[in-house]
Automatic annotation (TrEMBL):
Segments traversing the membrane: 12-35, 55-76, 88-106, 118-136, 148-170, 176-196, 257-278, 298-315, 322-341, 353-375, 409-429, 441-461
CDD domains given in the database record: MFS_MdtG_SLC18_like
Protein name: Major facilitator superfamily (MFS) profile domain-containing protein
Source organism (scientific name): Pseudocercospora fijiensis (strain CIRAD86)
Record keywords: Membrane, Transmembrane, Transmembrane helix, Transport
Length: 465
């Protein structure tokens, strides 16, 4: 009996829930990235697409995935918050993912492949809304940044291992072996999600402080700033606040009545655009300059991904001291780091060493940025709940607040960046070359540092009592 009780407790433990959510992120990214090496083959052999049109349809399939994520985020986020048990939508997402994978695998025409890719985008929405809402319910606002670090590790490991393993399986065992590998990963994800037991609403709330203001006095960030302070310098402050607590306006809309939240979403969009855009153009560049094959091009992402292992430690620090200067500093550091990659244009040992060093810096900056912005997203849900509580408004249908809808916006920003990044980077590199591509990414990060430093953690010039 004691063993059974321990097993039951483990199913709803913080460690196991974090593992399950992190692995779901890994599965999502693995499925997305593992298919990339085999897409041209699938288009020619299974979609009856000529080699001349392969690049066009590859871009379409990438864009359709982002469109699926973006459009499905609002309704799924609403459903997540209004569901009495978040594990149910989480498992429904797995069924969608399984169906999407089978469609992509067996697709007889390009239209079925497009439909499968669209469904894959919907399944990704489930991970980035329902999954993250479950994680925040479990760990609480006070530790969101720290546990976002584990999400970052899973995301980077998926990006790193999927193309490598997918390429190896394709070369040695063929097209079907790639999907056998993917289905194996999904199968393990299914087992984890079925074993996981979501904590009850009352249990989860015990881990989420209602007001952390007194716990962080004198530190760089306050968790429950009222919207009046954040919007004080804008002449429309009173209108925004009254709208934020107007029960006639859906919570999904009221979440947007915060400049601080909008800036966090912009930071997430830029982060995703840089991450995915860089992921698109880097393999082509190292192949052109150094002559590296697909294996070498895959390994070059190692210095970019390894800094993610520091994510939990970085998140713990930003949870304690606030994220403003960490995020702003990372965006500022990204600017010269990306621009200096213009210098990598010769096949020499020193150029290879320079590239590796710059990739480590870029990877570290991307890791620093994600954790605080992840926490800022959860914060907006807590702010809205506090405003409703102060106004005496009773919530109906959302017993756990608005984490699902807040992370629905997170997913929309991420998917938009994931779509725009590769398209813009590809267009720039085709029109003006590698130098202009990394310059444009660097300038985007440098400019983004301005709103980030002004609004992350609350408006920088607001007076706190």
């Amino acid at each position: 009996m004691a063993i059974i009780e321990r097993l039951r407790a483990f199913r709803s433990s913080l460690v196991f829930i974090t593992l399950v959510i992190s692995f779901s992120v890994y599965t999502d990214q693995f499925l997305y990235a593992a298919i990339v090496p085999v897409t041209p083959f699938a288009l020619k052999e299974h979609g009856n697409i000529s080699e001349h049109h392969t690049q066009f349809w590859t871009a379409i399939l990438l864009a359709v995935f982002g469109i699926g994520c973006f459009l499905s985020s609002p309704p799924w986020a609403w459903y997540t918050d209004h569901s009495r048990n978040r594990q149910i939508p989480f498992i429904i997402g797995l069924l969608i993912l399984l169906g999407a994978t089978v469609m992509l695998w067996l697709a007889p025409t390009i239209h079925v492949q497009v439909a499968g890719r669209l469904l894959q985008g919907v399944a990704s929405t489930v991970v980035w809304t329902t999954g993250l809402a479950v994680l925040v319910d479990t760990v609480g606002q006070e530790q969101v940044g720290e546990y976002a670090g584990y999400i970052n590790i899973a995301l980077n490991m998926g990006s790193l291992t999927a193309p490598l393993l997918g390429g190896i399986m394709f070369e040695r065992r063929g097209y079907n072996a790639v999907f056998a590998l993917i289905l194996g990963v999904i199968g393990l994800d299914i087992v984890f999600r079925l074993i996981m037991k979501e904590r009850s609403s009352s249990t989860a709330s015990n881990h989420r402080p209602i007001d952390l203001e007194n716990r962080r006095k004198g530190q760089a960030s306050t968790v429950v700033d009222t919207q009046e302070i954040a919007e004080d310098t804008l002449s429309t402050a009173s209108t925004i606040v009254s709208s934020s607590v107007n029960p006639k306006i859906p919570a999904m809309i009221r979440l947007l009545f915060s400049v601080r939240f909008i800036v966090a979403l912009w930071g997430i969009l830029v982060l995703a655009a840089v991450f995915s855009g860089f992921e698109t153009v880097l393999p082509l560049h190292v192949n052109k300059i150094f002559g590296w094959d697909s294996e070498g091009s895959g390994l070059i992402f190692l210095p970019l991904s390894l800094p993610a292992l520091l994510g939990p430690s970085i998140g713990k620090i930003t949870d304690k001291y606030g994220g403003r200067w960490f995020v702003a500093g990372a965006f500022v550091a990204l600017c010269p780091s990306l621009v200096l990659m213009r210098l990598v244009k010769d096949n020499t040992l020193s150029q290879k060493a320079l590239l590796v060093i710059l990739l480590v810096v870029v990877g570290l900056c991307l890791t620093i940025i994600l954790e605080p912005l992840f926490a800022e997203t959860a914060l907006r849900s807590d702010q809205l709940r506090k405003q409703e509580r102060d106004a005496g408004i009773a919530r109906t249908g959302c017993s756990r607040g608005y984490y699902g809808q807040a992370y629905g916006y997170f997913n929309m920003a991420w998917s938009l960046g994931n779509t725009v990044g590769p398209l813009l980077s590809g267009l720039v590199i085709d029109a003006a070359g590698w130098e202009m591509a990394v310059l444009s990414l660097g300038l985007l990060c440098g400019v983004s540092a301005v709103p980030i430093v002004l609004w992350t953690g609350g408006y920088i010039f607001s007076k706190r009592g």
